[in-house]
Amino acid sequence: MLCAIGCALLIFRASAATIAPLRVFCIDVEGGQATLFVDAMGESLLVDTGWDGFNNRDANRIAAAAKAEGLKQIDYVLITHYHADHVGGTTQLAGAIKIGAFADHGPNREDADETRDGYAAYMKVVGSNKHLVVKPGDKLPFKGMDVLVLTAAGKQIKSALPGAGQANPLCASEPAPPADVTENAFSVGILVTVGKFRFLDLGDLVKVKERPLVCPNNLIGTADVYLVTHHGLFESNSKVIVDAVHPRVAIMNNGARKGGSPEAWQTVHDSPGLQDLWQLHYSVEGAAAHNVAEKFIANPDEKNDKGSYIEVTAQRDGSFTVVNSRNKFEKTYTK
Fold it and tell me: How many C-beta atoms surround the C-beta of residue 42 within 10 A?
């Protein structure tokens, strides 16, 4: 009898894991990053924690999104790098919701007081908690989603992922990018996969570090959703990588006056096969020529910013729905 009950429970859990979607929240932290993944098992991953200060604005927005999903804790916080817009909110977030474990690329690599201070504050929060230093090829321990590390500490995967490895014809025509010694170049980049659905997040990885992922061969393959790297700044989002990953949808986590650079915006917008580009903010720099239609922008009015977010609900068959929380506009993308 006990065996029958146990087996039935296992079958029920397996069925729930198969049916339940992956949910992704691109939370508005005003030009930083805070991306929350919740898988079919109820496991959670937060990539970056936004800014410090602002009356706990970013920590409160993240905690509110987590609690709205019924989370009592965030299982893993992954810090891509130690700039203030990515790691700054960690201390405040730890006071707002329990954090199970932390992951990052290891010690700070940038010779600047800001990043040294950010790293020190972060490590104080980490304390004696579970802490993983990840390297390319590692997988975070989730059961309901596959979280593969593509880049970390200035290094990248060396072998092509299954189905990838094709030669990239753009590599010969695009000029070599400049060197970069900031923490951006050491960003942790991940590919989150559930069934046939793939979500690519490369943090603030710069062009010189994007290139080895896709030149001379594309090691990643394609992505259904591309979180536009580095908030849509010119220093990232080279055509060689954007066109290679061939996203169906791109989401730009820009602020009103940070990110959304016209050149990067145009590269993403013109990527072959892109169906839609969504933005967290209207870009002041982009003006009319380099912003999408208002219904695709979570926060179109800088003076009346409500902190609206963009939500993705993804099925294992590769189909997904994107929702703008401000106006409830949604669009479903099928395979």
Answer: 16
49 within a domain of the structure (yes/no): yes
Q: What is the CATH number of the domain that holds 49?
A: 3.60.15.10
Whether residue 32 is contained in a domain is answered as yes
Pairing of β 330-333 and β 310-314: unpaired
Q: Which residues contact 44 (CB under 8 A, 6 or more apart)?
A: 36, 37, 38, 66, 69, 71, 73, 74, 75, 76
Among residues 84, 86, 93, 82, the alpha carbon closest in space to that of 59 is found at 93
> Is 16 part of any domain?
no
Q: How many angstroms separate the CA atoms of 131 and 77, rounded?
A: 10
d(Cα 163, Cα 43) in Å, to the nearest integer?
A: 27
Question: In a structure prediction context, what are the per-residue pLDDT tens digits for the chain, which is 335 residues long?
Answer: 445 545 544 444 444 445 789 999 999 999 999 999 999 999 999 999 999 999 999 999 999 999 999 999 999 999 999 999 999 999 999 999 999 999 999 999 999 999 999 999 999 999 999 999 999 999 999 999 999 999 999 999 999 999 999 999 999 988 989 999 999 999 999 999 999 999 999 999 999 999 999 999 999 999 999 999 999 999 999 999 999 999 999 999 999 999 999 999 999 999 999 999 999 999 999 999 999 999 999 999 999 999 999 999 999 999 999 999 999 999 999 98
The answer as to whether 8 is a domain residue is no
Q: How many domains does the chain have?
A: 1
Angle at 301 between CA 296 and CA 305, to 5 degrees: 100
Residues 52 and 86 sit within 8 Å (Cβ to Cβ)? no
